[in-house]
Write a structure and sequence with these properties.
Shape: globular
Low-confidence stretches: none
Strand content: 15-25%
Radius of gyration: 22 Å
Helix content: 25-40%
CATH architecture of the largest domain: 3-Layer(aba) Sandwich
Number of strands: 16
Length: 431
């Protein structure tokens, strides 16, 4: 069978799964022909302004000449070579860049395939460290509700067990500790009750807990919730006092999205283990990394089995490393702070007044993240069509309509994106 311009979409619709969507039944996917800057061009000729950065990864926009050049230069040398027993310069250069841009002290780097896998690596790293320290009872994790850390088994086990997307699997997953998520959104409204349950759990169970894992400042796909930096400071202090490691999942928040290079900087804390992904390659290829300290690295390396027990086939893929190097350089050498600040200002101007719309429960804004929480869950098919008809691409979920556009979006496109979003939400709520 040869797919043609006329039948490839029918074939794909019948045979190819999409994320969190049924294969057998009525689904709606919009075929993209090309992408440039912040625009997606559909097969039918329509053009959409991307308000999602392709799930928060394409921070520099699509088809960027600098990233294209990095990919083309590397692919003529080698697209891939195994990292077991071999090494290459792009990996060393990427490790150096990551060490320079992340909080001080995180100077050991493990490369992996995706955000979910980086969480798996971080969990295994924490457990193996404590095993090496003769503390093999420390095998469980502590986290907060409304969190999302990925779709693989270890990552699913630390997602919210009730309101998350993985409750179907809860009885076959490792059982960890969950505390209520903080309600205070900033330090000015800090409430001591926010830390009380987590403090009780960690004090009573620290001999079993290898690490606390959190999404700093902003919880992503579990609810797009924003919380006070003071909470992170308190968690860091508890972890230090009770000998528990702290894992920061910055897969969604890293590389400038919240207004600082990494969200944990807003609390002035350094995690023991840091997960990064998504925007690492500017959305070009799937890649992630886990950074940790010399203390953890030495602890693992000096006790049997000495090697850290994880090794992906595509670990430190040279093509992905080369693009990631170019992406980080593009970010740090550009006006990313001003761009993210401009996004935040525009969100306040356009989305802030939506608090008065009947059917809107809340508006949340942090850096380059804008969230409308509705009273009732959205009709995904209906509201997505409204967005597309207005020339916009957004992907709401549950009760949430949220925006995380590429940093490079121009003012005119941003105005169209925000005005169209508000208009579509008003229309949807009125029907």
């Amino acid at each position: 069978m040869t797919l043609t311009d006329h039948n490839w979409q029918t074939f794909e619709h019948t045979h190819v799964w999409h994320p969190y969507a049924p294969l057998e039944g009525a689904t709606l996917s919009y075929p993209v022909k090309s992408a440039q800057g912040v625009h997606l061009r559909l097969e039918d000729g329509r053009e959409l302004i991307d308000g999602m950065s392709s799930w928060w990864s394409v921070i520099h926009g699509y088809n960027h000449p600098v990233l294209n050049a990095a990919a083309k230069a590397q692919i003529d040398k080698m697209a891939h070579v195994m990292f077991g027993g071999l090494t290459h310069r792009p990996a060393a250069e990427l490790a150096e860049r990551l060490i320079l841009v992340t909080p001080e002290g995180l100077d050991r780097v493990f490369f992996c395939d995706s955000g979910s896998v980086s969480v798996e690596v971080a969990i295994k790293m924490a457990i193996q460290f404590w095993h090496a320290m003769g503390r093999s009872t420390k095998q469980r994790l502590l986290t907060i509700r409304h969190g999302y850390h990925g779709d693989t088994c270890g990552a699913m086990a630390v997602c919210d067990p009730d309101t998350g997307m993985h409750h179907l699997f809860r009885h076959v997953l490792p059982q960890h500790f969950f505390a209520d998520a903080p309600l205070s959104r900033n330090d000015e409204e800090w409430n001591e009750k926010d830390i009380a349950e987590l403090q009780t759990i960690i004090e009573q169970n620290h001999t079993q807990i290898a690490a606390v894992i959190l999404e700093p400042i902003v919880q992503g796909a579990g609810g797009m919730r924003i919380y006070a930096p003071e909470y992170l400071r308190r968690v860091r202090s508890l972890c230090d006092r009770l000998e528990v490691l702290l894992i920061a999942d910055e897969i969604a928040t890293g590389f400038g999205r919240t207004g600082t290079m990494f969200a944990c900087e807003q609390a002035g804390i350094v995690p023991d283990i840091l997960c990064v992904g998504k925007a690492l390659t500017g959305g070009y290829l799937s890649m992630a990394a886990v950074l940790t300290t010399g203390m953890i690295s030495r602890g693992i390396s000096l006790q049997p089995p000495k090697a850290f027990m994880h090794g992906p086939t595509f670990m430190a893929n040279p093509l992905a490393c080369a693009i990631a190097n170019a992406s980080i350089d593009l970010l740090i050498n550009g006006p990313w702070q001003q761009r993210v600040a401009a996004l935040e200002t525009a969100f306040h101007h356009h989305l802030g007044p939506c608090r008065e719309i009947p059917g809107v429960a809340d508006v949340r804004i942090k850096g380059g993240i804008g969230v409308l929480e509705l009273v009732e869950p959205v009709d995904m098919r209906s509201i997505t069509k409204r967005f597309v008809d207005k020339g916009l691409w957004l992907r709401p979920f549950g009760k949430l309509v949220y925006l995380m556009p590429p940093y490079i979006i121009e003012k005119q496109d941003l105005e169209l994106l925000l005005a169209g979003t508000v208009e579509a939400v008003r229309e949807e709520l009125a029907d």
